[in-house]
Amino acid sequence: MENINAKYVSQKISKTRWCPVSYSSLQQPEVFATGSWDNEDNKVSIWSIGNHNNSGLEDGFEGDPQILCEHKHGGDVLDLQFLDQERMVSASSTGAVTIFRYHPNTHTISVLQHWARAHSYPCDNAPCTALVCSSPEIVTVGEDGRIVVFRADQEGAVRVIENADSSTIHAVTYLKTTEVLTVNSIGQLKLWDLRQQSSSPSQILSL
Amino acid sequence: MILSTELRGKHMGFAWGQGNIFVYETLFKATGSGSPFIHEVRKDEDIYSPILRKLFNESHHIFVGLQTIREDLPSKNKKPQFVSISKNYRSVIRACMEELQQVAVSTKNAEMSVQYGNQVSILLAIELIWNLCEVLFIDAAPAGSLLLHLLDWVRLHKADVDEKARDVLQSDSPAEHRDYWDVVVSYVLQGRLDEARQMLGKKATLTPAANNIFKMMDNLLSKMPFYNPGGTQTLTEFDVKWRHWHEEVDRCLQDNSFASNQHLEVLCKILLGDEDTLLEHKDLLGTWYHFLVSRLLFCHPTVKPTELHYYAQSCMTMFLDSRSAPEPLDSILLAAFEFDIHQVIKDCSIALNNWWFVAHLTDLLDHCKLLQSHNLHFGSNLREFLLLEYASGLFTHHSLWQLAVDYFDHCLEFGRVYLELQIERVPLDTERKALKVLRICEQRQMSEQVRSICKIMAMRALRNNRLGSALSWSIRAKDAAFATLISERFLQDYCAKGTFSDLDLIDNLGPAMLLSDRLTFLGKYREFHKLYGEKRFKEAAKLLLSLMTAKIAPRSFWMTLLTDALPLLEQKEVIFSADQTYELMFCLEELTSSLNTPSSDSDKSMQEEDVELTKVELLRLALSRNLAMAIVKEGTVET
């Protein structure tokens, strides 16, 4: 069995995602992103496990993740997804959705887009619990029971389904390019057809 | 520590926070101006350092592993395990120290550099003490091995010898380097005789005239006996051999064999353990405990653990002379040499600002069964007290609270109570965090805390008008009262709007419906509407009646239910049977009689009363008509 490498990084990590590699290359991905939670200052970081500088292939150092860069993040990172090879989107406990861009040449991260109140209650913030991407579309869900559709290149939200759910929506995923599936805290799966304009799901399945 | 000088000489007030104190200036007299600032004094800065955080996380891992060692093996077999755990702790401290050292050197901020430097020296001291405790208490080496372990201990904590040696060896002519003899003497003081001989060899080749005496010294150094614990030689045999060798060295000195070279003569005196010569090299020894170990090496290598403290006390006195009082580190080490474990723990608790060290060390010593069970005034033993203090400190940290849970789990007497009190105070920003905290409580059957946390989340949802969320939280908590409250809200919404909101939740309540009467009514009422919508009138009618007769429906809702029955009564087909109609009439009469009592609202407007009366009349009419049709239908014989 391969060795398991453990590294303490002084922060609680909530999500890790491999950076997608181009379809033409046959290599395994070497770079991954992490998001932290439960800290006073949370961050989104990029790590690498490739052997860049050290030529020595000692077993102890192979695969040891090295941090390349990081960027501060307001609120806990509740979800992190890659939009494409360079851009990633994060869902925050403050209800914000942010698009970051990773520049591999300079090893820096910059903020491309920031929707501060994607999810909110009338007089409070609501955490954005999950998101899913199919470039350039981003679908986010939150504790306010809303489903919001963004496009990476547009300022405002493309579509908002208010009161999609009476309880918290915990996760969302694509079934087809026009259909999403959400699950809520009472264990119901709801199928939504984004082509239709109605505010009710096309199907509800109970677990 | 409060460093602000502007606060000196002023009256201060304070208020306790969680893990910190708020300090402010106050005035006992009525005159004079005050300062508008509030200072926050944090008790424990260390847990906020990102590098030290790794220490807490890794040691937590080791701690949990230690607790799960099987209890049924006899203590003797577990000793190697305990020693290895002790070494694990120490390696974690060292790793942290190295990282802090790197950052201290590389940082450009002078203040941070000083702070890191301080933390490094504290960690150094901690590791020194821990190592000594491991040698004396956990490993509990007997005479013979004891000295060898103490030698290792000293060598590990005096790294500058190797640095100096490297400098000397890398120079063009090592034997003429000004530090050359310092290196040789340091090697000998640490009992590293092979390396000393190698060094001396370099000088020997340079001065062939003095070949003889160098050879003699080399001979003496090579013949010094070292006890081999794994060998067949007994301690007594070793002692005899050692005395033999000691006498030979003495003879060399008496014969003035090394008179021509003062350095070699000094070496010879050191080999004899001459105190004055040893003390002349205070700068090379550096500390009184190095002096102690070197002295023991050359005077009494078969020292027994019980004899240590005599030597320790006298060495300390000789080394430190009378300049100042011993530092805290010195008294802690002395207490360790005296095998006074409680004194060591007590002094460390006072000297350090964080309970980490004493908590983990005491826990390990307790597992080795080395602590007598003291009953402290508040009932628990020392180990538990320290672990509780440490874990409580962790709980105030926004992130490390999860570690503290495991520590409380392993404090058998008071751990649970502490956890129950602390877990409710974790701030719950997101549902995800709330679910994590809940899982911790549910795993430990802390039902009070589960209810309390669910209620907090439910209230928050209610305040944000998320009725579905609130209901699902109160179902999870099995909180009937709250479920009733929320169901009332739903019903009020229905009365106001005429339709139900959040149908997805109500339709799928399942067995959770039985939590509260009102909730059951809500579910069943919704079912009635569904049946009506599907045109299953007979079943709808039966359900409607049962809601009233089984007393599931609240009295206030009966009018609405009866009004709902109207369309069913008005159908061409007879839906309610005669018996059912009688029951409906009975319900209506019950309702109207209670409405007509003088205690009912007398300030209802005339219009409302009219509406009520009309409704009742309509119902009576419809019921009578239905009864007639039902009797006819039931009496008819189908031909």
Automatic annotation (TrEMBL), chain A:
The keyword Phosphoprotein does not apply. It is found in: Nucleus. Coiled coil: none annotated. Keywords: Nucleus, Repeat, WD repeat. One of its GO terms (cellular component) is nuclear pore outer ring. This is Nucleoporin 43. It comes from Oryzias sinensis.
From TrEMBL, chain B:
It comes from the Eukaryota. It is found in: Nucleus, Nuclear pore complex. Its main location: nucleus. This is Nuclear pore complex protein Nup85. Component of the nuclear pore complex (NPC). PANTHER family: FROUNT PROTEIN-RELATED (PTHR13373), NUCLEAR PORE COMPLEX PROTEIN NUP85 (PTHR13373:SF21). One of its GO terms (cellular component) is nuclear pore outer ring. GO terms for biological process: mRNA export from nucleus; positive regulation of DNA-templated transcription; protein import into nucleus. Signal peptide: none annotated. Belongs to the nucleoporin Nup85 family. Transmembrane segments: none annotated. The keyword Protein transport applies. Pfam families: Nucleopor_Nup85. Keywords: Membrane, mRNA transport, Nuclear pore complex, Nucleus, Protein transport, Translocation, Transport. GO terms for molecular function: structural constituent of nuclear pore. Functions as a component of the nuclear pore complex (NPC).
